[in-house]
Design brief:
The strands form two sheets. Strands 1-3-4-5-7-8-9-10 form an eight-stranded parallel barrel, surrounded by six helices. It has a two-stranded antiparallel ribbon with strand order 2-6. The chain is about 40% helix and about 15% strand. It starts with a helix and ends in an 8-residue tail after the last strand. The chain is α/β, with parallel strands linked by helices and about 375 residues long. The structure holds iron/sulfur cluster (SF4). The site of iron/sulfur cluster has 9 residues, from loops.
Length: about 375
């Protein structure tokens, strides 16, 4: 289990080691063909800031070598904003007095029809954690309904048991995103004060349960803004390295969500600027040539237009972060504000103008 490895590390020592990296460490990391976790620390360190252009060129080259000039498109489909957890940064948090909504099967199909007509083949189910109304049965039904229309169904919901994942995979589930939010266990507790999500270790072990269940792809990441992003990304890399060795048949993706405004939200403890996010994306690509890197509509148009060439392989487009936000309940409360509100067609146009190909579908499961 990853917990055994995680317990061998101390947050403050890791942080000190990252901030102690020198330009010589960065140059060594850039020269190598295969990079270690120590090299990754150098690439995300403040010492790497003057090397950003060199990192961007290398990241661009490595990404094109493995993925070509392609950007895979997906869209989130929020099914419910009911949640039994209190998370300080989320508009769906239990203590927020908002109207709660969970889509019925009929509404799921209505939303799906709309997204399909926009051209999407890759849909990401998102819910809060409300096991009585949005439990495993509800999710199985949703995956089964959506699998009839979409080539690829992913899920970002509460952590589940291995048997539940096995059952959802048999319904057609392809990918599960489970972000640790922060690997700083004490700060994690400050931000997750009530509900099942307050169990740090259960969340930490979720990718292990997914790997054992035989999921096709796992998405990892932290919520940037809760803690020092460099240290948090080191732990994400440590987690990924463990998972790749342990569950080698599974693919992996990394996301970089920065804390966004939402109803009842806290201010970020740490603010990451655009240049630092570029550094992080490039560092990930240079560290790992195989991992998929994804960028959501949380980011601005301008930022997304530029990051395409620097290592990203997947993007959402035209997203709504409220249940029924596309057709059935457009006014319901969103989880967080999006920044890039262009239509999918406009995003595709931008991708093509940049010389890349927008990929709607890269997966088909055969019975
Ligand atoms: S982040 Fe997820 S678990 Fe936490 S309040 Fe929001 S929807 Fe619920």
């Amino acid at each position: 289990m990853f917990q055994d490895i995680f317990d061998q590390y101390n947050w403050d020592e890791v942080k000190q080691s990252i901030y102690g990296k020198t330009s010589a460490d960065v140059e060594t990391a850039l020269r190598k063909n295969k990079r270690s976790l120590e090299d990754f620390k150098a690439l995300i360190s403040p010492a790497a800031t003057p090397y950003l252009e060199q990192m961007a060129l290398l990241s661009n080259r490595l990404t094109q070598k493995r993925f070509g000039k392609t950007i895979q498109l997906y869209i989130p489909l929020y099914l419910s904003n009911e949640c039994q957890n209190i998370c300080t940064y989320c508009g769906f948090s239990l203590h927020n007095k908002i109207a709660r909504k969970t889509l019925s099967a009929f509404e799921i199909v209505q939303e799906a029809d709309y997204l399909k007509q926009l051209g999407f083949e890759h849909v990401l189910i998102v819910t809060g954690e409300a096991n009585k109304t949005v439990g495993v049965d509800y999710l199985e039904n949703a995956v089964t309904l959506l699998k009839k229309q979409f080539a690829n169904v992913s899920m970002e919901v509460q952590p589940l048991e291995q048997e539940a994942y096995e059952s959802l995979i048999s319904c057609g589930l392809h990918t599960v995103l489970v972000y640790q939010e922060t690997y700083h266990s004490a700060d994690y507790k400050l931000h997750h004060t009530k509900g099942k999500k307050s169990n740090f270790n259960y969340r930490l072990a979720t990718p292990d349960r997914l790997g054992k269940a035989g999921i096709h792809k796992i998405g990892l990441g932290v919520l940037i803004g809760l803690e020092d992003w460099r240290t948090d990304n080191f732990f994400t890399a440590l987690h990924l390295q463990y998972l790749e060795r342990m569950y080698w048949q599974t693919r992996y993706s990394i996301s970089f969500p920065r804390l966004r405004p939402a109803e009842g939200l806290i201010e970020p403890k740490v603010v990451m600027n655009d240049k630092e996010l570029v550094q992080l994306v490039c560092a990930w690509r240079i560290f790992n040539e195989e991992v998929e890197l994804s960028m959501s509509t949380r980011e601005t148009e301008k930022f997304r237009d530029h990051i395409i060439q620097l290592g990203i392989t997947g993007m959402s487009a035209g997203s709504r972060t409220n249940p029924g936000g596309y057709v059935t309940a457009v006014e319901s409360l969103e989880q967080f504000e999006i920044d890039d509100d262009r239509s999918p067609a406009e995003v595709v146009n931008m991708i093509e103008q940049t010389g890349y190909k927008a990929v709607w579908k890269d997966w088909e499961a055969f019975a």
